[in-house]
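Record type: monomer structure entry
Structure origin: computed from sequence
Chain ID: A
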Amino acid sequence: MKWIVGLGNPGAEYANTRHNVGFMVIDELARKHGSDVSGNKCKARTGEVRILGEKIALIKPMTYMNLSGESVRAFMDYYKVKLEDLIVVYDDLDTEVGRIRLRYQGSAGGHNGIKSIIQHTGTQTFNRIRIGISRPKPGIVISDYVLSPFAKAEQTDVRRMVEEACEAIEYAVSHTFEQTMAKFNSTATGKEQA
């Protein structure tokens, strides 16, 4: 079973912030496939969709970002799922708004949610979809920036990134993650050139 973990913070005050773009992807994937993420297991909101006949678990940790690994570990242990079937979706300061970037390993890069997952799984090797949020202008505190909403001018790019992340997840169901990376990292928007 593939399992998709979108990172974010619980609570209405965080719903549309940059740090919660992982949650946005999970919610959109559920909506597209006629499901929701209303279950409550493993310190997370959970749901399930079927893509190409395969069951896909959707997970939104409710632990707050810094403790995301607790939920990931609990889900792993309870369902006996494999790390190679995991895809983590999260916001990335080093990728500009409008782009998604896929990776299969690496350090946390300062992202506390990823840091927690590495700590609780004991490895830096797991599939990731990084959603670009860009870096703030000089003088803006990073923690304030990631907890702020996207600007109105960014909304079209945000919708496109969320949609592309969903497409990448759907593609990964029937392709290797390496093939998925090759397809979705190929251009600035994550789309292949026609």
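Annotation 1: The longest helix spans residues 155-174.
Annotation 2: The chain has six helices and seven strands.
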